[in-house]
Each structure stands twice: as structure tokens, then as C-alpha cells.
User: Fold these one by one.
Assistant:
Number 1:
Amino acid sequence: MDNSLKLTCLHDLHVELGAKMSPFAGYDMPIQYSGIIDEHNAVRHAAGVFDVSHMGEIFVSGPDAESFVGHIFTNDVRPLPPGGILYGMMLYPDGGTVDDLLVYREFKPDHFLLVVNAANIDKDHAWILEQSAGFDVVIDNQSDAWGQIAVQGPEAEKAVCGALGFPEAAQLSFYTFCDLVREGRRVIVSRTGYTGEDGFEIYAAPEQIRAWWQALMAVGVKPCGLGCRDTLRFEAGLPLYGDELTADISPVMAGLGMFCKLDKPEFIGKDALVAQKAGGVAQKVVGIELADKAVPRHGYPVELEDGTQVGVVTTGYHSITLEKSICFALVDTAYAALGTPLWVRVRKNVFPGVVVKKRFYQTNYKK
Amino acid sequence: MSKIAEDLLYSESHEWVKVDGNVAIIGVSDFAQGEMGDITYVEMPDLDDEISAGDDFGALESVKTSSELVAPVSGKVIARNDVLEDEPERINEDPYGAWIIKVEMADKSELDALLNASAYAELVK
């Protein structure tokens, strides 16, 4: 193993379980244990647990915290009550995406938690600090101090309330959290996830996360790796930063405009998004369903029947739940309408497909 | 530790060859299927296609990755294991039983460039 890789607090337990490990976002992470299909199906039909300790936790507090978060974040935190969570993005002034993230409004006034992608922690922290000039805020990157697990699937509530002893979790609605104390230490339990199923994300000290991981193993919750994390989020139509959102792909291009509140007085990137909404964008992220079993992969060309390239695949799989070959692709806007026929080049062959809705799988969130 | 069948020849790209007279039966090794994970699709050439040693003749798809199949010998495709169309997982379950294609060899001397079981074991060790 590359010695420069960081290890999460659960690393030795993954190795003990025989996980296939691989570098991801600077960490040595589990890709799969029993197999991607088995783990994927466990989350769709029972419950699985993911080590997501690599995710970043950046705390923002101070008298200007609300206006500052509103300045850097596309969604509107002003009506968000304590214990509420919003999904949205941080943007560059040109509308390109710095990162997508969750914002938690804490129970203390003027306190927010920003949960960011592991690969972007350093970039985001620097960006946030840079934007904070002139705001009376404290920015505290606590990413290394927190472990995190995601318990996902229709049986997640039973596992979190029962095996982990968090009956409070049953009271949470989707995109809310509770603040608990266990063994004198702060624990955050939120009803969130990245799978299209009901589930919880639990943030705590590394030793506590280790104990709870083992408690979940003991009751048969399936350990799940990054392999099925990607297949699950993809089927549910959720973007991955680096694929469907990048410095060159704005939320409007990605079809995520509903998370950008253009009626807010201002936020970084707002003017660019207003212009994109008014004037249209050159390319959009769409879903494509292929008639064949050939698998479209990231980077494969999207073409017209005559071979003209009009786009590129951003994520693609032979869907485990839906049993068909589907992908997200960034295509010229002229070919982005539902029902448009498009072809995907897979090695030497081209396969016909059609533009479909990106939410391939009907999600099962508890509202 | 992956299994290696003693009576087969191997390519450095992890295909195996079973020689039956002038016919080469071709599949992929246990090591290869283990690295791929759950195989979901096998792309095969058509019957009577001519394949050339060193060139792609198809591909394996798993959930996570694609891997091209590289021809260990040249010749004409005389049979395809069409069972794999619906049951690609047979390659995971029984890599040395689940052959992919049979080829009528154009030049049996190409077999000399392949590895025997012990040399292949060194390669994947």
C-alpha cells in the first residue's frame, strides 16, 4: 500500500473483513467486501453500512455565520430551522462548481456544519477561508477528528434504533438531525444518505464509530464499499462531484437548479446562473438508456447516428436494480430533450439509446 | 490465492488456452475473474470472425470495470459459449470451465509464446 494514503478509523476492520482496498480521495478505502451486487442488493432490500469517515466536516460559527453561509451556498438557509439540513453547492463566480455539500443548521444560534466531499476538503477549506474576509465568522475544519458511518436501507431504522441504541433516530424526518451525547461526547445522527433509500449518517469520535461498526456487524448489517455506494447513488439520479458536477459543470447544466435559490439577494455564482437560466446552456447532463447490455463508462463518446460526437458519458453502469445499461452523459443541449435518440460508442461498436429521466430508480425516502 | 489449472497455457493478459488438436479453447484465469469482481456481460466475436494474436477479440464487463479480451492465438472463431450471454457469472463461478470461444488456429507455433502453469503462477504471485 502507498504509505502516503490516509487511513480512516475503521481501516484495520475493513482489512480484517477481507475488503478489496483501493486509493480514493487520498484514503485507502474499501471498494467491496462480499461483492458489489450483493452489497447493492442488501441496501435496496435490507440494510448496509458504509465507512464514510473520509468525508469532511467544516464548522462555521459567529455573528455573521448565517449571512456567510448564504453567501457561499446556493440553497437558502434563512428559513432552515435548527436541526434542519439542506443540500446545495458552492460555486465559482462563473457558475462552475467548487463542491456539492450538506449544510446542517445547529441547535446553537449562529452555528452551521458543512459536510463536504473527501476529495475536496483542502480545496473547500481554502475556498471558504478566502471568501470569509469581511465576515465575523470562525471556520473550523474538524475533518480529521470525526469518524462517520452511513447506515442505509429499509432496515436501517431498526438497526440504528435497536443495535446502536438511538431511539431518537425514529423521530427524525428526511434531511433532519439530532444532537446526542454518548460517553460524554457529541454524536450527530442525521436522516440522510446517498443511496436512494431511507437511512442515517452518524458522526462521532473514532472510537465510538468503531464500536458501532462492530455492533452493526454483530446484527448482520452488511458492510458496503465505495463500489456499491456509486452504483446506488447513480441509480437514484444523484450526482458525484468530479463526474456530473465539476468546475466546468454548473448546477444548471447538471439539472440541479432546484438547489440554487435565485430569489436570494446574492450568493457567489448567482449572476452566472441567472444568465444560464435566461440564455440557456451549451450542454446538459442527461440520462441515457441503451437497448443493449454493453456498458457505457465514464469518458465514452455520445454520438449521433452519423457518428458526430455530441457528448460524453459521465457515469454509466449495467444497473443492478433495473437490469439495463444506463448512463449519465453531458451532451449538447440540442440533444438533451427526453426521447432524443443518441448512440454511445463502447470500444469499437456503437449502441443505440434514448434520453430518459436521470432518476432511474424510484427513491424510498422517509418523508 | 487464485487457482491455476495445470494443463492449460496462459497469456500475460490472463487468458487461458486449452489445446485440442488444431483448436484453441479460450477463457480467462481465476486471477482475472477475481480482479474483475462480479462479471455482468461478455462481449464475444461472431462465428467465423478471424482474430489475430495480440488484438482484442471481445471484452468482459463487471459492475465497476471493463477489460478487453486479448487473443492469445490467431485463427477463425468456430464456437462461442453462448450460455455466457445470459449467465456471465459462470466465469466467476468456474473460470476454467466457462470457456468463451474456440478458435481454429492459423499458426500453432504461436502457442510457444504462452506461459505454462508454473510460469503463470510466478506472474500472478
Note: Chain B touches chain A through 13 residues (CB under 8 Å).
Number 2:
Amino acid sequence: MIYQDSKTLLAVRGLHATVNGIEILKGLDLTVKSGEVHAIMGPNGSGKSTFAKVLAGHPAYAVSGGAVVFEGGNLFELKPEARARAGVFLGFQYPIEIPGVANSQFLRLAYNTVQAGRGKDELDPLEFDDFVREKMKLLEMNPDFLDRSVNEGFSGGEKKRNEILQMALLEPKLAILDETDSGLDIDALRIVAGGVNQLANKDNAIVLVTHYQRLLNYIVPDYVHVMDAGRIVKTGGKELALELEARGYDWVGAEVKANAGVNA
Amino acid sequence: MNTASTSRYLDSLLQRQPPASSLTWLNELRANAVDRVGALSVPTTRDEDWRFTDISPLTKLSFQPARDAAQLAPATVEQWAITEASARLVFVDGIYAPQHSFNRAGITVENLASGVTRHDAAARAHLGRHAGFERNAFAALNTAFLHDGALIVVPRDMALAAPVHLLCIATRKQTASYPRCLVIAESGSSVTIIEDFVALQDEAYFTNAVTEIALAGNAEMHHVRAQREGAAAFHIANCAVSLAQASRYHSVSVALGARISRHNLGVLLAAEGAECSIDGLALIGGAQLADTHSLIDHALPQGKSRQLHKCIVDGAARAVFNGNIMVRTGAQRTDSSQSSRNLLLSGKARVDTKPQLEIFADDVKCAHGATVGQLDVDEVFYLNSRGLSDTAARNLLTYAFGAEIIGRIGVASLRNRLEQAVLAQTQTAAAGAARES
């Protein structure tokens, strides 16, 4: 939701990034204020997921230009774990399976590490168990998921619920959810979206990276951005998503090219 | 080293043999073994079976059996206590320590030297019959010294839930010990046996163990092997298992200790419908070498085998795995899978893995595979993105890799203890790996 007096959480200016020496982001600009929900859409290969991973600090992605200011500081001075503690959260498109580590152990370790980093109290296993079970209700998750290995043997929907559970535990200021809707059936989508909506408040912001408009029926964005060839080329309100759904992405690219022609 | 000098080395090990038994057949078995020791030599890397494991450092040192038992305080032994155990046999430098042993299991769990006369017929039917020593110098050596060890007989249809703990403690340097273990599980019985090798010292010594296990029809056994020998130890173990109809054998072996260790595990599925699961973990660093050779021999139809072997190798350590699965002509409808997974934590760490399938039947389901790798960048990043430092992330992933095997140990107190040991070792290992990367 757009609030009148909200602070700028994230300011991305002219961001360039490469992977394996190939430039994927080519001058991306984006401003996100607290309370807002942004959707970043675009065709495959436009750089959406790269942008999400660059913000979280994946080591395979190298920043080659531009700046990202998060809560007034240079985001790129922080290691990935420091970003997490500072309040950046990436919901993974493909959450990693960790056989041999109980989900409860992992969730508590992540929670306590982030709490300690924020100077807040850690929870012992018993306290954490009560706490996490309460949060799991938000996502209609069976407590059995605590005893299983992290994401191992989870269905696509279960993995995504586990991601949003982590978001609920870590209480990020900026949550970037990368293709959270992919691989979800309609019931799982409703539950996951419901969880995200309950976690949204006027002090945090959510960036949804998605290929399809479907998710946006459940999590209504304040802004919809279209990425093309490594940049945000068009920004509109939630109705832009419907237009993209109806007309595809090609017309946006054509419009960009036409504008470039006029300017030249 | 040439054959002549290595054979003389084996002769040097033959000194100080145990006293003759009252049983003629046992004396004959030992005499045969002594003959074989005389004819065989210490294997070299020119032997196919020892290609990756250079055992020659053993031959630079001399070892002799302990003359008398070191006296240990009860508290010293109790640090390795397994609370669930219904029986325990303790051997100190290979010598039976009755004062530290107990048996509340209601089955035969006794030291071999005294048990073998009482169970003459059963012992005679099995001792030396499963663990062949014709071409195996170390099994021959153990058999030449066949005197004491563990004898476990589980009566028909007896289901013993509480584990039996066999604890071998090494206290003196330059000592050779030759533990021998015979397990006879009669039809329909079930039992859990833990073989546990620990040390109170970090000097060189030599453990040369042989374990023979015979499961009768429909019997079931859980076998846990914890090799946590001292840092300079040589540990060589031969284990031979024979499975009768519809019997089930489950093994989890964990190798953490010893300078050089070699574990040969042979499982013969000798009748229809037998099943086994063989899981192993070697977690080594420094200049350690841990070698596991396994042979799962499907001799008759409808057998099932599962094997997962993992190695975590740090420093300049070296792990070897050779897993042979044999499916003989008659072993139709065999269902077998084998996986070797290896994690290298340093640039100098090395693993040689060789899964082998030999299939002579045409109606079978067999799968095998091997992976060797380092910690996955995406896995580390996933944990980083949840606030964990690089070191914490690497620790957790390394631990998890090993914990998958440890988690299969059904005895909670031992499982927890080994998990802690793995955790402690992975923290050291992963910290080194993080510095290197």
C-alpha cells in the first residue's frame, strides 16, 4: 500500500551486473518505499531473477556498475548474511534441499542468527517450537514439516510455503519473492499469497518477481514494472499486469524501441 | 618393498601367539592360518585390491600382542557407555576385561575364549567358515591369533531390542590386537550389535579385527561399527556376513579415526529373499587414509540390497571406496542399488571411488552411481541468505552430508555421540575449507 510519509527503503540507480562475464542487468532503476508492493514482470531472460539474486548477494553475479542504497547505506558493502540480518530476504524460486538437517534446526538457526545480528533475544528449542508452530498456522503447514529434512521431498507448494515461513520468522524489511507462484496449484497459491498479505505492513516492502499475472490477483501490487533486456522499461499500476496478461510482452518492447527512435 | 621382506614382516607379527586350545579343530584352524601367513605377504599397491591404499607404513613399525591387561578405572570405560545396551564386552588392547563387561541380555554374549568350548559345535560350524583367509593376509593373521573376542548366539525367535556393545579400547603403543567376533542369529531372531573401537592414546598401534556373522532364516540384525581409533593407529577389519532365506542385515559403519584404516565387508545373500542395507561414512582429514571395500554377493533369487557410502575428506587425506555388487546367474529378480557420494573439503583431499556391478542374471533391477564434489555454491548461498555466516553455512552443510548416514543408526545415545563427533570435526574441517576458498 502506498503511504504518504513513507521512507525510501531501496534505491537502485543504473545497476549493471554480469554473470560469467555476460552483462545481464544494463542500467536498472527502481525505488521502493516502505509499505509498498512492487511486481517486476517481464519475459524470460529479461533479468528479473538476476536482479533478485544481485540484491541478495549471490556470489555468481558480479555488479559492474551503478548503486543500490538500502535504508540509507550501500547494500553492496554487506555480505549476503549481513544483508539478511539487515532485513533483506530472498524467497527462492528453487529452494535448496538439505538432507540431514531437520527443518526445525535450520529454521531456529536462521532465526537466532538474525535475531542476534539485530541485538534481539534468541529462543531455545522449546520456545522456538511454540513460536514456529504459531507462524506455521499462517501458512496452513503441518507441524510434521519441522521434523523433516529441509525441503527434502517437499512438493513445489510445500517448498514455497517453507520459504514464506522463513519470511514470517525473519521479519524482513524488504522481501524479494522470486517466482513464488511458479509450480503452485490454485490452493497452494491462495495459501502462500494469504501468508504474504498478512506479513505485509507499512514498515516493510515486498518485491514480487513473476512471469505471470495470476499471483497478482492474490497479492495486489501498488506498482507493476516491466523488465526488458536488463532494464525496467515501463512502470504502471496493477492494471498494467492485466494488460500484459492480455497482450503479452512484445508490445512493450516495441513501444520502447519506438520511443528510442523518437528520441534519437 | 620386495615380497621376501614383507613376508618376513608377517613372520615378525606371528610372535607371542596365544596358548593352545583344548579344542583340536580350533588348533588346526589356527595352524592352517599360520601356514597361510607364512605363504602370504603384506599387500602392496601392485595388488589390485590395495591399489589405492599403501599399507607399507605399517611394515616400518613392529607390533606385538599385549602380555597383560591394562587396568582401567570404571569411569574411564564408562565415558564410552551406551546407555541402551543390554550387554557389553570390553577388550583392553585385545584382552578381555570381565570387570568392565556385563550381560543382562538373556542370550549368549561372552568372551570367545571361554564361550567356544560351551558352544563347540556352533563355533566350529562358523568360525573361519565365512571370513576366508586363503588369500587374505590380515584375515589369516587374525585367525592365527584366534583366541579371544566375542561370541554372540541369539536363540530362535528371540527378539532382543536393546543393543549389545563390543568395546575395544587401545591403551598401549606398539600393541597388536586381534579381536574376533562371531555372531550366530538363529532363525526368526533379531539383534543389534555395536562394534566400537576407541583409544586412550595417539601413538601407533595395530588393530586387526575379523567379524563373522551368520543369520539363519528370517533373522534380522542391525550392525553398527564405530571406528574411532587413535590418530596414529592402523586399523584393518574384515567382516563376513552370510544371509539365509529372508534374513535381513543392516549395517552402518562410521570411520573417523586411525592413520590408515581398511574395512572389508563381504555380504553373501546365500538364499532367496535375503536383504541387506549397507551404509558407510568416512570422515577424515590431515594425512589419514580410510579405505572401504565391500562385496555384496547376490547368489540366489529375489535378494535386495541397498548401499550408500559417503566420504568427507579434508586436508591431505585420502578416502577409498570399492563397492562390488555381484549378481550371479541364478539370482533373478535381484533388486540392488548402490551410491557413492563424496565431499572434498580441500584442494589436496582425494577420493578414489569405484562402484562395480557384475551382473550374470537377466531379470534384475540394479542401479549404481558415484559423485565427487565440493560444497555447492547455491547451497552455501541459500544459508547465507538466511543470515548464516560462510563458516556456519559450510559447517552445517558438511555436517548434514555426514548426518544422513549417522541418522540411520538406531541407537539414540550412540547416534547423538557420533553426531557430536561429526559436528566437532566438520567445524574444524569447514573452517579450513573456508580459509582456503
Note: The domain at 8-95+173-263 of chain A is CATH 3.40.50.300 (Rossmann fold).
